[in-house]
Write a structure and sequence with these properties.
The protein contains 48 helices and no strands. The chain is mostly helical.
């Protein structure tokens, strides 16, 4: 027969502290439920560690909240794992804070995900970093977003690497922005490739800069084209030059024009060679004008032939002069006739003398008159022979 609440309340703390382990574990859950906070505190720590599974599962809020920090640290990992999520949330924040790393490491994923904001917020950075990769990978986005910023920042690179794409994409702006550059650079290529554009754009500028070239190379076209001006503009020249030709060829003109001018200049000749006519024709005046002579001379004849007259006229004079005779030979009559007087006058005698008879025959009188006298004089007899009566 169970002792009544009156009988239990009549037990002094001296009597309780003098009880043997056998006597303590003889109490049923109803009797333990009658214990006051003072009486709970009187139970020896060895007896707390000896509580049976049935007793642990039946502990009420008064008993759990009444445990002092010394008793809490003496709970075995088995006892803690038996506590329901409701029971865990009955713990005082001071009690949660003293849980050993071993005890925290013994909590189940279900227990961790059921902790309320107060209980979860009571965990120290030391306790959070003690979580196993299995525990971290099992946390819901709700739980992750409940962690204190200081705790999130304390996650080890191993723990961060255990996060799934779903977890990372579920982090709110504050939580995602709290990640350190070290944590961001520790993300695997699989994690990076799985990030939504929203998540990528929520990263701090310093975190974007911290992405390794391997991580940048793992970004999909959808991710790159979805980056905001701030995020894309934050990429360093090293990161931009790490983009594969597939990534470069897949960039929209909007994305290309969001890249900083210094990054455009840093594009390798191989990357330049991967740009389509549509991309080149979509470049704004600033970015097109930023191309170096080395980059312009790296353009293929197909790329040159695909340039609009608008884009040709936007090229810097030094870039026009740098066009190789092969590139000049790829220009159509329409392109040549569309060149303004400044652009046409910039052509060198070597470039003019490399024009084919078809190109010369297609020049309008306006274009012929725009040529420098030195260029006209340099026309070969074959080119002169290609001029029509109307041109002459």
């Amino acid at each position: 027969m169970s002792l009544s609440s009156t009988a239990i309340s009549g037990l002094s703390t001296t009597t309780i502290s003098g009880l043997t382990t056998t006597e303590i574990i003889a109490f049923d859950t109803t009797e333990l439920g009658y214990f006051s906070t003072t009486q709970v505190n009187a139970i020896n720590t060895t007896d707390i560690a000896a509580l049976t599974n049935t007793q642990v599962k039946g502990l009420n809020s008064t008993f759990i909240a009444g445990l002092n920090t010394t008793q809490i640290t003496n709970l075995t990992t088995t006892e803690l794992s038996l506590l329901s999520t409701a029971q865990l949330n009955f713990m005082e924040t001071t009690d949660v804070a003293v849980l050993t790393t071993t005890q925290v490491g013994g909590l189940t994923v279900a227990q961790l995900n059921a902790l309320n904001s107060t209980t979860l917020g009571a965990l120290s950075t030391t306790q959070v970093t003690a979580l196993s990769t299995t525990q971290v990978a099992g946390l819901t986005t709700t739980t992750l977003n409940r962690l204190e910023t200081t705790d999130l920042v304390a996650l080890t690179t191993t723990e961060v690497s255990a996060l799934t794409a779903a977890q990372l994409n579920g982090l709110n702006t504050t939580t995602l922005g709290a990640l350190t550059t070290t944590q961001v650079s520790s993300l695997t290529t699989t994690q990076v490739a799985g990030l939504t554009t929203v998540a990528l754009n929520n990263l701090e500028t310093t975190d974007v800069v911290a992405l390794t070239t391997t991580q940048v190379d793992a970004l999909t076209l959808a991710q790159l084209n979805g980056l905001t001006s701030t995020a894309l503009g934050a990429l360093t020249t090293t990161q931009v030059t790490a983009l594969s030709t597939t990534q470069v060829a897949g960039l929209t003109t909007t994305a290309l024009n969001r890249i900083e001018t210094t990054d455009v200049v840093a594009l390798t000749t191989t990357q330049i060679g991967a740009l389509t006519a549509a991309q080149l024709n979509g470049l704004n005046t600033t970015n097109l004008g930023a191309l170096s002579t080395t980059q312009v001379t790296a353009l293929t004849t197909t790329q040159v032939a695909g340039l609009s007259t608008t884009q040709l006229n936007k090229l810097e004079t030094t870039d026009l002069v740098a066009l190789t005779t092969t590139e000049i030979g790829a220009l159509t009559a329409a392109q040549l006739n569309g060149l303004n007087t400044t652009a046409l006058a910039a052509l060198t005698t070597t470039q003019v003398t490399s024009l084919s008879t078809t190109q010369v025959a297609g020049l309008s009188t306006t274009q012929l008159n725009a040529l420098e006298t030195t260029d006209l004089v340099a026309l070969t007899t074959t080119e002169i022979g290609a001029l029509t009566a109307a041109q002459l």
